[in-house]
Amino acid sequence: SQTIHQWPATLVQPVGSPLSLECTVEGTSNPNLYWYRQAAGRGLQLLFYSVGIGQISSEVPQNLSASRPQDRQFILSSKKLLLSDSGFYLCAWSVISPNEQFFGPGTRLTVL
Amino acid sequence: AQTVTQSQPEMSVQEAETVTLSCTYDTSESDYYLFWYKQPPSRQMILVIRQEAYKQQNATENRFSVNFQKAAKSFSLKISDSQLGDAAMYFCAYGRGSQGNLIFGKGTKLSVKP
What we know:
The complex is a heterodimer.
Chain A: E1 3-7, E2 10-13, E3 19-26, E4 32-38, E5 44-52, E6 55-58, E7 64-70, E8 73-78, E9 87-94, E10 102-103, E11 107-111
Parallel strand pairs in A: 2-11
Antiparallel strand pairs in A: 1-3, 3-8, 4-5, 4-9, 5-6, 7-8, 9-10, 9-11
Chain B: E1 3-5, E2 10-14, E3 19-21, E4 24-26, E5 33-39, E6 46-52, E7 60-61, E8 64-69, E9 74-79, E10 88-95, E11 102-104, E12 108-113
Parallel strand pairs in B: 2-12
Antiparallel strand pairs in B: 1-4, 3-9, 5-6, 5-10, 7-8, 8-9, 10-11, 10-12
């Protein structure tokens, strides 16, 4: 069966520090991968998605970036965090069709 | 552009009763998928039910069922025999298989009263 992991689960970082969140999927090959951000009490905002190694599409221009160095690994990064980067970050994977997405447990990021 | 609208920010239901959450969407496509996701306090997103647009029959998963009205672009979720564990945020989502990414509504917070 497929599983998806995210780490860390919780992170507190100062403004201006770098960020690296990691997501890995097991039990499937060549999945589509996604990064979402969710502000408190709000819906999901798609940040990035990837259909293959090295292929990244950005949905929202900001100081975040994503990379996919391996088939089942997806990394969300920032060189300098802003206060507005605080939120709950979710990674998800899907097959092409039907494209229901399966989510990881999420990372709660607080930028102080 | 496709949009998904959940017009009920909050809903409440008595334990063992039935509740219906509303969702409407806008698309010019004829082939797509619709989903309901549940997000409990743990914030893990859990797929509740899926509906393929080409299927006329409404999807059912145990106590969860949908009322899919394609012409009206409506996709409501009915929860029967509500349980305390059903308390969560519920998100409606739209997707097209060829593109992969989903479009989510803003969610409905469901409370279940004992």
